[in-house]
């Protein structure tokens, strides 16, 4: 019985099987490519503000170290379990390989609702998590980054904790840090900027005029809010926005910058002065660009048949189930899919830039970061589109096969030790 279970891991396994079949990978090779190299489960006890002691379950999965250290975010959410973390680490491997980054995939997390913790409790839990993982991570072993429920401050606590145990400042142990602590300009915006840039690439492919285009953003966290703002600033009319607390839809357009200010002040969209909409119907409203930027598996088979977008830009990890994928394939060129391993790769690409700058202690400006980000995104987008057209396969199969094949070839060249 495998420790990797649950719907998210089975989704990753199903996707990999599809790619392995397409690439003709021998059955004897498949487990080595799919199963993580290392999976760590830890207990994180902390003192709560009321004097009690609470223990939280933490995880870290390192998928492979064939191309270099592993790289991946750390998620604080009540839903976190080993299967979910392993799936996210696997997807990160293909994402890094598609972008040409010298990393394997990793992911970590703690099963906790961070909103339920006080600032002191959050700091204590963050530091304890890093402390427990010190034997298993390092700048050339596994480099952490933020994810759902974590941010620049949590990364600064991670970095400080690791540095205290090393007796020196080790900026390069995490990415997504504040600029003042060795972070890079552009990292916080990177994923949302990437979603926007790739949506414009897709609009160019489809000959859609941006100033006449509409967009819907499901999930108004860091990725969704920045993608929405950047799309709106370039003339796209954002007509739908939602988060876990509220949903809004207006064909005349929504003020996403005002929404962002509201979220910064209130913590969520709840209470924003606009007419609310039924959340379950938002994804299926007609639009040119649909950005699911919240959780996994929000587009299932039932939703896939009802989508009325021209471009599906997957800002979240794994928002489309394999069953929905098959239905989208059957729709042919009806919907231009930008799969998650490309669409949300801006974050890990700029995390790579941050790691490189920390190692060299030589930092770039914002414009240089964004320019280099766009170059890698353009290269990956073109490779995906060309392979899709050549082999008459879906964009997801194309993008994932490029990533899987690069890891596979690297493993073959290195061989199996001993």
Automatic annotation (TrEMBL):
Q: Name one GO molecular function term.
A: nucleotide binding
Its keywords, alphabetically, are:
NAD, Nucleotide-binding, Oxidoreductase
What does UniProt list as catalytic? 107
According to the entry, every stretch annotated as the Glutamate/phenylalanine/leucine/valine/L-tryptophan dehydrogenase C-terminal domain falls at: 184-415
Family stated for the protein in its record = Belongs to the Glu/Leu/Phe/Val dehydrogenases family.
Q: Which GO terms describe its biological process?
A: L-glutamate catabolic process
Q: Which domain of life is it from?
A: Bacteria
Q: What is this protein called?
A: Glutamate dehydrogenase
Where does the secretion signal sit in this chain?
Answer: none
Which residues of this UniProt protein bind substrate?
71, 95, 351
Residues the record lists as binding NAD(+):
191, 222
Instruction: Answer whether the UniProt record assigns the keyword Cell inner membrane to this protein.
Output: no
Write down the position(s) of the site called Important for catalysis: 147
Q: Enumerate the CDD domains for this protein.
A: NAD_bind_1_Glu_DH (cd01076)
